[in-house]
Design brief:
mainly alpha, 2% strand, Sestrin, two-stranded antiparallel ribbon, AhpD-like, 561 residues, oxidoreductase, cytoplasm, 6 strands, oxidoreductase activity, acting on peroxide as acceptor, two-stranded parallel ribbon
């Protein structure tokens, strides 16, 4: 692609070589200042401070300045952060208003001071941040929340990199478009925005972004599978697979279909994580920054890196969150109750272990308990009226907007039982994926195992706790909602370990993530650390992804045999 004069090129910033980054930063500085000078002649900074700055709305300068703001806050390389801040300062001195962040940190649910601050990370986290930035050209908010669990994040980033950028059956622009289709099913504008940019960056046709009907017929044909995987995967049959593989010139190969299925399930479950952890818009995306002046008079460029965003957003938070100081009285009143909640949960775990050791339920009783839990899970729903985070309408990227899990649960339709002993990831799905899309089965298997087995042997303020029973209850409850049964598990344990508020949160995040609210997040495990709630979300992500994969891969296996 031929470089236009004055075009801002960002590629060199991803280099691990400081000299390459310095050269790229210098080119960016010159390009930005040239654009700035064409908009307004230089004016004294005193005039700028009096509010006479010119909004940077023309010539694409506002998008460039927003990206520089993101780099000043989020780049793992200190030289890039510092130079980006300096470039913004130079633009401000010309009399042009510069953007500032909206919101407070990578999550609307987790206070910024409790997340990892870029520049304060340890060596292992810095390596992960640098790898992510070098690969994607950004350090996104999902990464900044997942880094609570570095071992999982490393596996997640490696898998996502392979799916999106390494050799595989599908061309690069198809991969990002499928990501857009999958995220749009849950109206996840955060992920849609990221992949729209990536789709264009790898040469995707902008016309496809006007709606799914503008994409090739081959991708349109994937819409039905996308819809069922996202909302009712138990309905997928070998006939659906056959329809995709035998559609004349628009047919999919088996390898392409496996790649597409893994991408769809990856982004459905990542939408769950995005909503479940209240991921904020990226600083350089819509909703992540503003050019409006703050409601204080002494704001300056140094505030950007000091984390000061002005006071107006506290009162105009998109989630309606209350400042911490206003919550203190309520928090202190419920702290004793919350501590009792942790103690009670630990006591239940101990009693269940003792019961296990004393007697074992019959197979008939185990089957009855599963069916009861599966039936009850249909009617777990939130009674809240609170609005979830506002999202941009992305319905043009998918068909049949009324189709969803909600309709299924409301009508009490029966979900058939899927017995893991008949078709499992370990014995069937893993080998099928690895055969048709080499190495991906191994990457997914590693990610599933890390999420399932991850433990620090802590529960809230307690140490040296075996949490395996609780982790298994969460995983199996999610699979139970999808009709998936483990013959060797006593589903009576779920009701003992997961209270109603926790079940509401789990079901919402897994089945209708776009309806997740901060109140739901706050209402379960009130005495637990935010890192433990993020850990719960990792279990939700991987259990959901595996459930979707099991249904799709079983249908593909039946087609092949």
């Amino acid at each position: 692609m031929e470089e236009r004069e004055g075009e801002v090129r960002w590629d060199g910033l991803c280099s691990r070589d400081a000299a390459t980054r310095a050269a790229a930063l210098d080119n960016i500085r010159q390009a930005v200042l040239r654009r700035s000078e064409t908009i307004v002649p230089p004016v004294p900074l005193t005039r700028a401070a009096e509010g006479l700055l010119v909004p940077a709305a023309r010539d694409g300068l506002s998008e460039v300045l927003a990206r520089l703001l993101m780099l000043a806050k989020r780049c793992p390389f200190p030289d890039v952060r510092e130079k980006s801040e300096a470039i913004l300062g130079g633009v401000q001195e010309l009399g042009i208003r510069i953007p500032r962040p909206l919101g407070h940190g990578p999550s609307r649910f987790i206070p910024e001071k409790e997340t990892i601050q870029v520049g304060n990370e340890d060596a292992m986290m810095h390596t992960l941040f640098a790898d992510s930035f070098a690969t994607l050209g950004r350090l996104d908010n999902v990464t900044l929340v997942m880094v609570f669990h570095p071992q999982y994040l490393e596996s997640f980033l490696k898998t996502q990199h392979y799916l999106l950028q390494m050799d595989g059956p599908l061309p690069l622009h198809y991969r990002h478009y499928i990501g857009i289709m999958a995220a749009a099913r849950h109206r996840c504008s955060y992920l849609v925005n990221l992949h729209v940019n990536d789709f264009l960056h790898v040469g995707g046709d902008p016309k496809w972004l006007n709606g799914l009907e503008n994409a090739p017929q081959k991708l349109q044909n994937l819409g039905e599978l996308n819809k069922m995987l996202a909302h009712r995967p138990w309905l997928i049959t070998k006939e659906h697979i056959e329809q995709l593989l035998k559609t004349e010139e628009n047919s999919w190969s088996l390898a392409e279909l496996i790649h597409a299925v893994v991408l769809l399930t990856h982004y459905h479950s990542l939408a769950s994580f995005t909503f479940g952890c209240g991921i904020s818009p990226e600083i350089d995306c819509e909703g992540g920054h503003t050019f409006r002046p703050p409601s204080v008079s002494n704001y300056c460029i140094c505030d950007i890196t000091n984390g000061y965003h002005g006071v107006d957003e506290i009162h105009a938070s998109p989630t309606g969150s209350i400042p911490v100081s206003m919550c203190l009285n309520k928090q202190s009143l419920s702290s004793t109750e919350s501590v009792c909640e942790v103690e009670a949960l630990m006591e239940k775990m101990k009693q269940l272990q003792e019961c296990r050791d004393e007697e074992e339920a019959s197979q008939e009783e185990m089957a009855t308990r599963f069916e009861r839990e599966k039936r009850e899970s249909m009617f777990v729903c939130s009674s809240e009226d609170e609005e979830s985070a506002p999202t941009r309408d992305v319905s043009r990227h998918f068909e049949d907007t009324s189709y969803g899990y909600k309709d299924f649960s409301r009508h009490g339709m029966h979900v058939p039982t899927f017995r893991v002993q008949d078709y499992s990831w370990e014995d069937h799905g893993y080998s099928l994926v690895n055969r048709l899309y080499p190495d991906v089965g191994q990457l997914l298997d590693e990610k599933f195992h890390i999420a399932y087995n991850l433990t620090y042997n802590t529960m809230a303020m307690h140490k040296d706790v075996d949490t395996s029973m609780l982790r298994r209850a969460i995983w199996n409850y999610i699979h139970c909602m999808f009709g998936i049964r483990y013959d060797d598990y006593d589903y009576g344990e779920i009701n003992q370990l997961l209270d109603r508020s926790f079940k509401v949160y789990i079901k919402t995040v897994v089945c209708t993530p776009e309806k997740t609210t901060k109140r739901m997040y706050d209402s379960f495990w009130r005495q637990f650390e935010h890192s433990e709630k993020v850990h719960v979300n990792l279990l939700l992500v991987e259990a959901r992804m595996q459930a979707e994969l099991l249904y799709a891969l079983r249908a593909i296996t039946r087609y092949m045999t």
